[in-house]
Design brief:
Number of helices: 9
Order of helices and strands: HEHEHEEHEHEEHHHH
Bound molecules: S-adenosylmethionine
Structural class: alpha/beta
Distance between the termini: 35 Å
Oligomer: single chain
Number of strands: 7
Mean pLDDT: 96
Largest sheet: 7 strands, mixed
Shape: elongated
Helix content: 40-55%
Strand order of the largest sheet: 3-2-1-4-5-7-6
């Protein structure tokens, strides 16, 4: 039921109470509770169809006493009365995950662990984490066929990251896992193709310079 991506996310869940935002089918909270990774969970979902599927799946697994579905956007579904140990936000773009954290964090009691899995653009997430008083404690990349998924784990703490770390991930840069290197290799080939195309077909020197800098940065990291 649970794909490799969410199984890996589940390994980072800590404590009794999990909040999963954008739960959709609720596979992650169901797996976490069934496997005693979390004692209970709250699922937040803002779209009616996925919310109904959350409710339905919780019921069909007979977990209504341990998993609660709440309808609403982002962190507006939680309040200071909820004692939360881990928040997961997975399978969305980085800018959306970042917006969810920025616009609703005042509803969160304390600083639970955050486990975030952006499908794209993790840069804004890392910036937001620093602004919210979090430091990145772990990161990994999961490869599934042609897709690469980043997972970012953050805990309360002060941190400063330079532009390179915000872009590529401070822990990913340190660990240099093979999936991370493969992801960057593919990105480098992609940017090189864009650059070659621009150099032949475009007079936009600013754009050409921008892509050239991306290529240089990727080559430097690799
Ligand atoms: N988290 C699951 C996973 O990783 O497989 C589902 C990912 S699904 C692609 C994204 C889900 O997030 C959708 O069900 C969508 O309705 C929900 N979503 C998008 N924006 C949201 C928001 N602001 N608050 C709560 N849910 C949101």
């Amino acid at each position: 039921m649970l794909d490799q991506r969410l199984k890996k996310v589940a390994t980072y869940i800590a404590g009794n109470t999990l909040v999963d935002i954008g739960s959709d089918h609720a596979y992650l909270p169901i797996y976490a509770v069934k496997n005693n990774i979390a004692a209970r969970a709250i699922c937040g979902e803002v779209v009616k169809g996925p919310y109904d599927s959350t409710v339905e799946n919780i019921k069909s697994h007979a977990l209504s006493d341990k998993i609660e579905a709440r309808f609403g956007s982002g962190l507006e579904v939680v309040s200071h009365e909820d004692e939360i140990d881990t928040i997961t936000i997975c399978g969305m773009g980085g800018p959306l995950i970042s917006d969810i954290l920025n616009s609703g964090f005042e509803n969160v009691n304390g600083k639970p662990r955050l486990v975030l899995q952006p499908n794209t653009h993790s840069y804004p997430i890392r910036k937001t984490l620093v602004n919210l008083g979090y430091s990145i404690t772990d990161e990994t990349v999961i490869r599934n066929g042609r897709h690469f998924y980043e997972i970012i784990v953050a805990e309360e703490g002060d941190a400063f990251y330079d532009e390179k770390a915000l872009m590529f991930g401070p822990v990913l840069l340190e660990k240099r896992e093979s999936a991370f290197i493969e992801k960057l290799d593919r990105e480098l080939e992609h940017q090189k193709r864009i650059l070659a195309n621009l150099e032949i077909n475009s007079a936009n020197q600013e754009k050409i310079q921008e892509v050239r800098e991306k290529v240089n940065l990727l080559e430097e990291v690799l």
